[in-house]
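Narrative of activities, Objective 1.

The group set out to show that a structural description can be obtained from nothing but a protein's sequence at a throughput compatible with the screening campaign. Below is one input-output pair from the validation batch, recorded exactly as produced.
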Amino acid sequence: MEYDTQGKVLKKAVVWQNLFFYRKSDALYQLTVEFCHRFLPPHGDRTVDQMVQAARSGKQNIVEGSEDGQTSSEMEIKLLNVARGSLQELRSDYQDYLNTHHLSTWPASSERQLRLRDFCHSHNDYADYEPLLNRMNDEEMANMALTLCHQTDKMMCAYIAKLEERFVKEGGIKERMYAARTGYRAQQDAHMRALEAENAALKKRIAELEEELRKNRRSLGDRKA
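Output recorded for this entry:
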């Protein structure tokens, strides 16, 4: 956290472009645009708008949540959960496409699904997927999208769990502001006590020097007499 007794209460900014689950969500969005362009009718089918919007909402709410997270942990968690909801909706749309077109959802233990899962696990950017798409049919692309949806959601769940744990320990911005103010006041109080102690020590030393000076004067007077 980026706050201390000097009054810093904002959390360190998250570079959302570097988050693996954001990069996967962006790849999923671009893959969905390509899927809809190739396999769904351009007009008269609301599914296209629904799928593209759900995919876009997924990645955009990650961006907004990460930006808002500097000031509001609550809003960050809320928007990341909105992103999860959008990607779950997208996953349902891909599943519906496979079902209505009598295509296969690849079993988790099948060899091609295992290869696909390994590939998606180690590749995060659309540039990794784009060269493959022209060689893929709708069943292959839909299963790839489902795999990306699942992996992105799993990564987001782990990330949100850490945010919630941090929020419980450190609170939101109000709690951080209170901690910063309290810490600053405690620091000022300690500084004041140190000054008072130093002042008392100086007064004592001055009194001692004055007493020593009086003794020296008396001693000097006696000698003259």
